[in-house]
Q: What sequence folds into this?
């Protein structure tokens, strides 16, 4: 089968499409025939060596939508059947094979039924970004009466899901986004949208999807909460502000809930462009250019 890997770190030119053996599922694992897999900024970080792994062949891709093709030994409660349409998060920055391949093996408890209302290309954009947003919001759950939230990068993939999910929870959300994205961010449920957060505005919490760091921390009230999206890269605590960063984890039940919200129209997906698997390097080059609205998706 074909798979996208990096054998040495660098820019888009480091991305290779190689022939490799079809992986076999082990105990409590399933193999998915990939229909679509999104390209995320974390893949560019892996490609550049941010997460280590020098000297190893590293497979790219965390998100996948496709069809269960084979199952390992699982108990009855966790069983998947061949032919099931699914989505999954394949966690891990340094792994021999990712989801940017024709087949991928993932843990059975990382898999959820595919959404019924969108195609595989759109479904593939859900797992990593929506799970990151939901798990970050869990870390920011406010005290009663304290529910103001600033989401930076509110028009982005993680930020957009965070705005929608936070609004659904009843939080007063302000989105920080570019001027041209104001209408879109408001449509997600933000009460206010700004392209330059007001200096005298203090929020109970900030979800820093744009990875601004200390400037975003400055907008949190004394004793509030800050959550970033890059583990161990959050700024140091000041003024009693609790700081941290979410490290996304596979969660079958939560992913199934997010799929349900997508099918109910609460969440929406955005696809910017699709690329054939063999054009993965071109997709990385487009990602590096910036200004992408929605996700780039690879289709085997």
A:
């Amino acid at each position: 089968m074909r798979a996208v890997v990096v054998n040495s770190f660098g820019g888009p030119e480091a991305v290779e499409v190689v022939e490799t053996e079809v992986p076999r599922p082990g105990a409590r694992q399933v193999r998915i025939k990939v229909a679509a897999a999104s390209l995320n900024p974390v893949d560019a970080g892996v490609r550049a060596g941010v997460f280590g792994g020098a000297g190893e062949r590293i497979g790219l891709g965390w998100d996948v939508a496709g069809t269960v093709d084979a199952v390992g030994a699982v108990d009855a409660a966790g069983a998947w059947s061949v032919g099931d349409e699914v989505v999954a998060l394949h966690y891990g920055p340094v792994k021999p094979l990712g989801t940017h391949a024709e087949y991928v093996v993932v843990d059975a408890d990382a898999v959820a039924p595919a959404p019924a209302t969108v195609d595989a290309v759109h479904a593939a954009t859900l797992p990593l970004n929506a799970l990151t947003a939901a798990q970050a919001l869990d870390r920011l759950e406010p005290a009663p009466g304290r529910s103001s939230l600033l989401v930076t990068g509110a028009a982005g993939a993680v930020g957009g899901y965070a705005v929608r999910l936070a609004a659904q929870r009843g939080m007063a959300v302000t989105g920080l986004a570019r001027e041209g994205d104001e209408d879109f961010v408001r449509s997600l449920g933000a009460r206010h949208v700004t392209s330059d957060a007001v200096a005298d505005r203090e929020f109970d919490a900030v979800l820093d999807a744009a990875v601004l760091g200390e400037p975003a921390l400055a907008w949190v009230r004394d004793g509030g909460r800050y959550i970033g999206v890059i583990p161990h890269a959050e700024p140091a605590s000041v003024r009693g502000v609790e700081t941290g960063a979410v490290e996304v984890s596979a969660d079958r039940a939560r992913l199934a809930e997010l799929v349900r919200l997508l099918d109910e129209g609460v969440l929406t997906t955005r696809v910017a462009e699709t690329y054939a698997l063999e054009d993965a390097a071109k997709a990385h080059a487009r990602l590096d250019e910036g200004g992408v609205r929605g996700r780039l998706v690879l289709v085997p």
